[in-house]
Amino acid sequence: MTLLLLLIANVCAPCHPAIVKQYESTGMARSSGKLSGATAVATVHDPSSGATYRINHDHRMEFERGPVQGSRMLEWFIGSGNVGRSFLFALDGILFQAPVSYYSAAGKWDISPGYEGKRTIQMGRAVEPACLQCHASGAQPEGGVSCERCHGPGQKHVATGKAADIIHPAKLPAARRDGVCAQCHLTGVARVATATRKAGTFRAGDLLSDHLAVFVWDAAEAGELSATSHYERLAASKCKQASGDKLWCGSCHDSHREPAAAEKAGFYRQRCQSCHAQKPCTKAAATSDCASCHMPKGATRSVDHVAFTDHSIPREKRPPAAPVAKRALRPFLPAPAQERETALGYAIAAMTEPAVRREAFERLQKAPRDVAVMAQLAQFHDRMGQEEQAMALCEQIVAIEPDHPAAAVNLAIYRIKRGRTAEAIALWEAALKRSPAMTGARMNLAVALSRSGEREKAIAALRQALRYEPDLEPALRLLRELGATP
Ligand code: HEC
Ligand code: HEC
Ligand code: HEC
Ligand code: HEC
Ligand code: HEC
Ligand code: HEC
Ligand code: HEC
């Protein structure tokens, strides 16, 4: 990490040494990197699976559940550790997320968010590219959030030193300025990539709405509970509603510097008073800690991407509102949402909110068809038991995009159910060549091979699946049935 951080910093450091130095100590700058040095030994027991994990001094993670055991070398972290840290390891050039994380408040390791309540050890989840988009600056889990993420490509400016050759976020028109922070700080209910831009190509200075449609729940009461991002909360504040474009993240935060604990109250008070000096608080002195009353903090700060400090700046701390029965999605960014993006937004929302499943399905059916829409529709048809429709859609997707992993592996399932085994095997083999970590698909392939009498190939596929997912019970079972060992 140190090397890469220095390389990135060095580009700007000769001319902006103070900013580079200050920025290094922020959570953003330290939000990902390579592990180095020694760590304290720790053990985690997972009551639901019965697994035991042990972290060694050298960051080697051992795991054990009954006869299943092994180890992985944790090489990278995600998260500065102000709140917590997730860890990554590499196998065959693929990055996987570790099933245990470090939680700073509790001062201990525990099961990672999203890994709780499993029956087996989960070792085969490839890291979501989105993690690295927000915590690093692309595909590598290193270097934290770089200067360029907020200032745009710096090459030309480094050569010329001219102001015109670099983005100064505060000088941008409001929507473009806000997009600089919103690219990472606006979670919403669903973030949908627009049809015209490739994911991960947003640059500071672009309009975020050209790249992403972000949806939030419309109901204000329910929104109170579900609005998890700083962006959404701030938009709900009187300050923002009454100030409009004048108020933004940069009104209170210095992107290059986190104020020290002792200096915090004064630092933020000054920001409040830049607008509230004329008509001071009726309940407290002008020298008080404004944020302590008007931006209260949640009970526990979690790694769940929930705004901890209440950015809706209430007069008085509000109890969270009760959830409402029916709610709809509303586009958050000031751009007319298209039918396609709205339908995809509902499809994503439906994964955690069954009440909008029907609406998602209806919208998908009406939306202009592209690969993303067809892939979602195929899943809906499949879940509703409408296999013919699902299969036809997968065929269309694979015809357009032969590399589409989900469509290819699902099409193989439909093929094999219809006795077209050779086609299914070919589809799985091709998909796995491109995406080797799809363990479920490899398991299906092994079953198909073994049923076609290809014992050796089946055994090889099972061993490969177990390489990524050593506690894959069906694979262990089939291996035993085939008279082989892992
Ligand atoms: C060769 C020296 C040099 C390097 C290297 C350099 N800058 Fe600058 N930068 C300058 C100078 C000089 C100014 C002031 C220009 C002016 O005011 O006309 C400046 C101004 C800026 C500004 C303010 C622009 C504005 O509109 O006021 C930003 C932002 C900035 N630099 C960011 C960066 C970033 C990010 C990097 C690294 C990618 C970087 N600089 C590397 C010399 C440099
Ligand atoms: C490339 C993604 C990205 C961009 C762009 C970004 N942030 Fe962040 N920000 C993060 C992440 C990730 C964290 C959590 C860092 C951690 O602790 O690991 C964070 C943390 C913060 C924090 C908490 C203090 C700290 O440094 O950890 C503040 C305040 C903040 N960001 C403000 C901003 C503002 C203001 C902007 C826009 C000018 C912005 N961020 C742009 C990703 C980003
Ligand atoms: C849309 C951008 C975004 C994505 C995607 C994202 N994060 Fe974050 N993450 C943030 C921001 C911003 C923060 C800090 C404040 C907050 O909670 O909003 C954060 C905080 C964290 C923290 C706590 C860091 C600390 O100590 O302050 C961890 C750990 C973390 N994220 C891990 C992950 C992992 C693992 C993934 C992928 C599964 C992921 N994040 C995906 C933006 C993102
Ligand atoms: C999280 C977003 C973010 C990151 C990361 C970031 N900056 Fe900035 N930078 C800003 C914002 C916002 C401003 C405008 C501040 C203002 O004037 O309100 C700014 C202003 C500047 C300026 C001109 C104004 C000044 O304070 O002199 C320079 C130079 C600069 N940044 C350099 C850098 C360098 C070098 C890095 C990397 C070490 C960096 N920035 C990283 C958001 C960021
Ligand atoms: C960019 C200007 C701006 C900044 C910065 C700002 N506010 Fe406001 N705020 C306003 C405006 C405008 C209103 C609405 C008119 C009013 O009540 O004065 C408002 C309203 C409020 C209200 C009344 C809310 C309600 O629901 O009636 C509180 C409380 C408040 N602000 C506190 C703060 C605190 C605390 C800070 C600093 C953490 C802050 N404001 C920063 C502009 C701002
Ligand atoms: C009116 C002032 C104000 C504005 C505007 C503001 N913040 Fe904050 N923010 C704060 C205060 C105060 C804290 C608490 C700082 C602390 O205790 O360390 C905070 C904390 C944070 C944190 C740390 C995690 C947490 O929830 O405590 C992040 C991340 C953050 N803000 C991001 C943003 C982003 C992104 C924006 C723009 C959408 C924004 N903030 C706008 C005042 C503000
Ligand atoms: C001890 C808690 C506390 C502190 C500290 C505090 N406030 Fe307040 N503030 C309140 C309460 C309670 C109200 C609501 C008063 C009411 O409804 O009559 C209020 C009201 C406000 C209002 C709305 C006033 C109006 O007429 O609508 C603003 C603006 C405000 N505060 C700003 C600030 C600023 C700026 C600071 C820091 C200098 C600050 N407050 C510090 C408790 C506090």
Can you summarize this structure?
The longest helix is centred in the last third of the chain and has 14 residues, at 387-400.
Description of the structure:
The chain has 486 residues and is of the alpha+beta class. The protein folds into three domains: 2-149, no CATH class; 173-356, no CATH class; 357-481, Tetratricopeptide repeat domain (Serine Threonine Protein Phosphatase 5, Tetratricopeptide repeat, Alpha Horseshoe). 42% of the residues lie in helices and 12% in strands. It is built from 22 helices and 13 strands. The protein has helices spanning 2-12, 17-24, 129-135, 147-151, 155-160, 174-185, 208-211, 220-226, 230-235, 238-243, 249-252, 264-276, 290-294, 339-350, 357-366, 371-383, 387-400, 405-417, 421-434, 439-451, 455-468, 473-481; strands spanning 32-34, 42-45, 52-55, 60-65, 68-73, 76-78, 84-91, 94-97, 100-103, 108-111, 190-193, 212-217, 329-331. The strands form three sheets. Strands 1, 6, 7, 8, 9 and 10 form a six-stranded antiparallel sheet that branches. Helix 14 packs antiparallel against helix 15 and helix 18 (405-417) runs antiparallel to helix 19. The longest helix has 14 residues, at 387-400. It is globular. The chain starts with a helix and ends in a 5-residue tail after the last helix. The relative contact order is 0.08. One heme C (HEC) binds next to helix 1, helix 4 and helix 5. One heme C is lined by residues 26-28, 31, 79-80, 82, 134-135, 145, 149-150, 169, 180-181, 183-185, 249-250, 253, 255, 258.
